[in-house]
Design goal:
It is built from eight helices and 18 strands. The strands form six sheets. A four-stranded antiparallel β-sheet has the order 2-8-5-6, with helices on one face. The two termini are about 15 Å apart.
């Protein structure tokens, strides 16, 4: 360790106010009351106050240990562990949820220095929990931080502020470029379909399809989580992750090339082409087109251009009758193929741009980690 630095546990640095977590069960959301900071409010190095939860005063009083005085460091300790922010003074008197630890350093350490050190610990915390990541309060108190003299702490904070401001500005520019690339593809696609409206009338979706139906229950006996020689037919559910793959069976429900539309949950409306046989479940909507009337790829682009309406206030969902109510513009088969070729080419170019921009974002994140590592090795 660099000369003049010392190793100190977080417990020793917070002797004036012990590290603790907050409200166990916030109960029903209040329109007014005591602000409650939750893990979703802690973003990338700052606190987002746009959607603050509120609880009753009596509930907050039950957890007096975690009532905020303003200026404390907040650390997420459950689920997504390691988010860090400093509580703004205008939330003084508020409280925190059980998923957050409050860290109130004494005068021996600059709170902004300690915040940066906690950010440098990303991926290094002693996390427990097989299903839900958790960081124990006792383990937090035993974490050892490298602490230089106060003047050096302030110099490091100033340097990190300067570096992070420049990186965040660069990140914002790349994110805007990424959004622009996605919007460009959507705009070009909209233009192509608007041109079709000049010459064509819409036809009902069922009139160009052989089947439109929803998947049923998952197989209970003929099922395997992994692909085997016996169970090698994909089971597809309402999910975006892993392309909706739920497991494998030996039953085929759909043997023709088709389109699936996620009908429940956060991915409702997500559309995929399925070329191989599969078994749909959990009300996943399956559309099998009449190949003589509409090409599979053109139909997918058409469905993605629908203004999908969802029912259900708590859980968004689609139904077969809702999908059957849609209509589409239907040019000739040669025109469909031409449009698909244009959109495929544009999509490929867009995905290439998106990949490049994502690599830039990843590089900026790695740059932050590298700078933090140098800072707390005394090399900044």
């Amino acid at each position: 360790m660099k000369q003049g630095w010392k190793s100190v546990t977080l417990g020793e640095l917070t002797s004036n106010r012990p590290i603790c977590y907050g409200v166990l069960k916030p109960g029903e959301r209040q329109s007014i009351g005591v602000p409650l900071i939750r893990i979703t409010d802690i973003k990338n190095n700052y606190l987002d106050k746009t959607n603050i939860y509120h609880i009753t005063q009596s509930l907050s009083d039950e957890f007096k240990r975690s009532i905020l005085k303003g200026g404390e460091i907040l650390l997420s300790i459950q689920g997504t562990v390691g988010r860090v922010a400093i509580c703004p003074d205008d939330l003084k008197g508020g409280n925190i949820s059980r998923t957050i630890a409050i860290i109130s350093p004494d005068d021996s350490v600059n709170k902004y220095f300690l915040r940066y050190w906690l950010l440098s610990m990303d991926g290094k915390f002693p996390i427990t929990g097989a299903t839900r990541a958790s960081l124990n309060i006792g383990a937090i108190r035993e974490l050892v931080a490298p602490i230089p003299p106060l003047d050096e702490q302030k110099r490091i904070v100033a340097k990190l502020d300067e570096c992070f401001e420049a990186i965040d500005k660069a990140r914002a520019n790349v994110e805007q470029n990424l959004n622009n690339a996605k919007e460009l593809f959507q705009s070009r696609k909209n233009d192509l379909f608007k041109k079709l409206e000049e010459d064509l009338s819409k036809v009902p979706l069922p009139s160009v399809c052989d089947e439109i139906f929803a998947g049923g229950d998952a197989p209970k006996d003929n099922y395997s989580k992994e692909k085997t020689e016996t169970f090698n037919i994909p089971i597809i559910a309402n999910a975006v992750k892993d392309n909706g793959l739920y497991g494998y069976t030996n039953k085929i429900r759909v043997s023709k090339p088709s389109i699936t539309i996620a009908a429940r949950g956060s991915g409702t409306g997500h559309t995929e082409i399925r070329y191989e046989p599969f078994f749909p479940i959990v009300r996943l909507i399956v559309i099998i087109p009449n190949d003589g009337k509409v090409k599979l790829e053109f139909l997918k682009y058409s469905i993605q251009n629908f203004d999908i309406m969802r029912s259900g206030s708590a859980i968004p969902q689609l139904t077969v009758p809702m999908i059957k109510d849609y209509s589409l513009l239907l040019p000739s088969i040669p025109e469909q193929k031409q449009i698909v070729n244009q959109l495929d080419k544009l999509k490929s170019q867009t995905q290439s741009l998106e990949s490049n921009y994502q690599q830039e974002l990843d590089a900026l994140d790695e740059l932050k980690k590298s700078i933090l590592q140098k800072a707390f090795n005394g090399e900044l």
